[in-house]
C-alpha cells in the first residue's frame, strides 16, 4: 500500500507532471530559399540572418524577410560545414560542425575577422545578455562568455527526468531557450535555470516534408524571434517557406479536439 502511495505521489509531483504540448497557428508565410540547408537563424533590424550548411554550400547571409532575397552573403571554404550563428555587439559568430572552430565576422560587412576554437561538434548558438548558449547534439548546452567565447557553464537538459538528445537550433524567447529537436517535429521550451523542458511545441503538419527532394535530411530547423513585435518565425532545411506562427496553448488544443469529436 505504501509503495503504491509513493508512486502516486511521484506521479503527481511537478517533476513527473506531464509536459504541456503547444500547437500552432500560421500567421504569415514568407518565401525561403529552397537551396538553403538552414543551420542557424535569427532576426535583427528587419532582416533575417541565416547560416547554411553542407560542404561546398555553407554560407552566412542577410535576407530580406518579405521577399526572401539574399542581400548580403559570405561563403565558407568548400570543405567547411557551417552551423549556428548569433550576433554580439558589432560581430556575427558562426560555428562549424566538425572542424572544432568558429568564425567571427563583421556584422555589417559579413567579412570574417578571426577564428576561435572549441572541442567537439558545433550545432547552434543563441544569446541572452552577455552569455551565449551553444548546442552540440548532446543533452548538454554550453554557456559561453560572449566576449572571450570561453565556456563558463553547462546546462543539462532533461524532460521527465530523462536527458534530451539532438538539441539543435536555438533561440532565446521570453526567458526560455527554444530548441529544435533534430529529425523531429518538435521544439523544446527549456528553463535555462534548471535545464528542464517545461513545454513542447508540436509542429507536425506545418509543411509536408515528404514532398521535398530529400525528406530525411530536409527537416524542421530554424527559429527566429522578433522581440519588439513579438513574432516567432520557423523554417526547415531547404524548405521553400518561412512561417510566422502563433502558439496555441494546450487547453485550447484540447477544446478544439473535443469539438471535432477526437
TrEMBL record:
Instruction: State the Pfam families in the record.
Output: Glu_cyclase_2 (PF05096)
Which InterPro entries would you find in this protein's record?
QCT (IPR007788), Quino_amine_DH_bsu (IPR011044), WD40/YVTN_repeat-like_dom_sf (IPR015943)
Q: Which SUPFAM superfamilies match?
A: YVTN repeat-like/Quinoprotein amine dehydrogenase
Record-annotated membrane-spanning stretches: none
Which of UniProt's keywords are assigned here? Answer: Signal, Transferase
Q: Does the keyword Transferase apply?
A: yes
State the signal peptide span.
1-17
Q: Name one GO molecular function term.
A: glutaminyl-peptide cyclotransferase activity
Q: Which residues form a coiled coil?
A: none
Q: What is this protein called?
A: Glutaminyl-peptide cyclotransferase
Amino acid at each position: 500500500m505504501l509503495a503504491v502511495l509513493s508512486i502516486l505521489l511521484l506521479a503527481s509531483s511537478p517533476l513527473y507532471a506531464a509536459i504541456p504540448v503547444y500547437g500552432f497557428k500560421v500567421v504569415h508565410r514568407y518565401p525561403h530559399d529552397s537551396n538553403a540547408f538552414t543551420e542557424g537563424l535569427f532576426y535583427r533590424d528587419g532582416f533575417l540572418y541565416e547560416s547554411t550548411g553542407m560542404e561546398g554550400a555553407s554560407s552566412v547571409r542577410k535576407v530580406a524577410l518579405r521577399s526572401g532575397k539574399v542581400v548580403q552573403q559570405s561563403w565558407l571554404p568548400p570543405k567547411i560545414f557551417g552551423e549556428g550563428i548569433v550576433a554580439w555587439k558589432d560581430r556575427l559568430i558562426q560555428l562549424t560542425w566538425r572542424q572544432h572552430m568558429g568564425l567571427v565576422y563583421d556584422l555589417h560587412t559579413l567579412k570574417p575577422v578571426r577564428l576561435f576554437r572549441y572541442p567537439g561538434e558545433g550545432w547552434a548558438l543563441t544569446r541572452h545578455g552577455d552569455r551565449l548558449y551553444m548546442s552540440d547534439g548532446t543533452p548538454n548546452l554550453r554557456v559561453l562568455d560572449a566576449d572571450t567565447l570561453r565556456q563558463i557553464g553547462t546546462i543539462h537538459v532533461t524532460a521527465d527526468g530523462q536527458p534530451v538528445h539532438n538539441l539543435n537550433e536555438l533561440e532565446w524567447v521570453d526567458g526560455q531557450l527554444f530548441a529544435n529537436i533534430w529529425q523531429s517535429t518538435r521544439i523544446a521550451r527549456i528553463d535555462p535555470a534548471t535545464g528542464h523542458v517545461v513545454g513542447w511545441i508540436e509542429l507536425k503538419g506545418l509543411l509536408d516534408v515528404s514532398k521535398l527532394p530529400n525528406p530525411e535530411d530536409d527537416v524542421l530547423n530554424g527559429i527566429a524571434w522578433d522581440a519588439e513585435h513579438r513574432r516567432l518565425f520557423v523554417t526547415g532545411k531547404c524548405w521553400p517557406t518561412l512561417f510566422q506562427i502563433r502558439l496555441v496553448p494546450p487547453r485550447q488544443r484540447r477544446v478544439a479536439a473535443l469539438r471535432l469529436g477526437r
